[in-house]
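hey so u asked for the seq, here:
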Amino acid sequence: MKHIVVLTGAGMSAESGLKTFRDSNGLWEGHDVMKVASPEGFRANPELVLDFYNQRRRQLKEVEPNKAHKALAELEKEFNVSIVTQNVDNLHERAGSTNVIHLHGELCKIRSSANLDDVREWTEDINIGDVCDRGHQLRPHIVWFGEAVPMIEKAAEICATADILVIIGTSMQVYPAASLIHYTKPNIPMYYIDPSPASVELQNIKVIPKSATEGIEELIPLLKN
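ran it, structure tokens below
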């Protein structure tokens, strides 16, 4: 069974109604990203940061996986599918995908602000005073700017075993995620779906300049040839 590795970004979830992480002006939902997505921002104003992610978590409950999420889940019937996503939502899982790695963390998990390994499921608001067993404030399980990306090595190992690489809804400009394309075996087929694709200097890549839901309709017959 061929192994398809799918790298997904914000464009994957945009058609479900989730806004992309960062607009061109450096704002996320009207906020300076460094104030809501950095350790410094959390230290300066933890209430603002917790409220920001509480709103994102509530919004996530109001949206559904789109056709592209569901199509990737369906591919598991015919392929070994691994998804490596930059998204912090759980729409891949809700659509039925069973092998998902979140590079930048997960909205529906929390962790101790003092212990990277103290992670647990969490679907409600996080408030000031919510603490771990050792008394440290709980924070979103999100990789903020300036923090290490703990899943990047595992993601690179997965990419190295891909027979086919698919990229959906990402600018390929955010590192270290953008570097994953370079861990694949030489000359494997690659497909890049994005309505405004970045230029990628690779001969073995087919660009499909469409949204996630439209592009995946074009992709699936190509995968099954």
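The longest helix spans residues 46-61. DSSP finds eight helices and eleven strands in the chain.
lmk if thats what u needed
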